Amino acid sequence: MTQALRKLVTFNEFVAQYPDNPQRRYELHDGVIVEMVQPTGDHEEVTGFLATKITLEYGRLNLPYFIPKTVFVKPFENESAYSPDVLLLNQPNLINEPLWQKTSTVSFAVSIPLVVEVVSTNWRDDYHKKYADYEEMGIPEYWIVDYAALGSREFIGKPKQPTILVCCLEEGEYLINKFRGNDRIQSPTFPELNLTAEQIFRAGIVS
User: Fold this and answer.
1) 113 in a structural domain
2) Which of 5, 88, 165, 185 could lock onto 33 through a cystine, CB 3.0 to 4.6 A?
3) Is the model's pLDDT at 172 over the cut of 50?
C-alpha cells in the first residue's frame, strides 16, 4: 500500500476530508491516512464470491444481517478506521452505534458478526494490526483469506500455500483454525456453510 499522508489526523478529521473518489479506497491507521492498493482481478473475484455465498447463507437462515458497500470499522482504543473486504452487519444493533448515521461507521462487536479480509500486498496489516484490533474490539469471527499465499511462513507454513485462517473469539482471544484445499470451512457464525477453501481460492469456478 501507499501511505498518502504522514501527518497524524483524528478519525473525525479523516471522515471530514475523505476523498470522494470511487476508484480509490483509504483507511486510517493510528492517525495516518493510508491509500489502499488497487485490488487485482483475482482479489475482486474472491471477494465477490465470498460476499455472494455469505449473503445466500444469512438469507437462507433469515438472519437480520446485510453486507454494506462502504462502511468503516473503528476501534475505540485508537485513531484507526478500516474498510474490510467483506463486512457482515447485524442491522438491529445499528441504532446503538453513535457514528452510524453520520459517518457509516461501526465500533461495537455486537454489530459485526463476521469480518473478512482478502489478503493482498499489505498482508502485514491483515495478519498483525487488524487482527489485534478486531480481537481487542471483541469481533467474534475474523477470516483472513490468503488465496495467493502472500503471508509469512509463520502463518501459512513452509512451503507457502493458499490458506484461510478463521479466527474465533474465545475468552477474549482469537483461536485460529486453518483451512486449505478441500477442507470445509468451519464457521461459528454459519455452522452449516458448505464451502471449501479451494472453492474460495478459485472464486467458485470449477474446471
Assistant:
1) yes
2) 5
3) yes
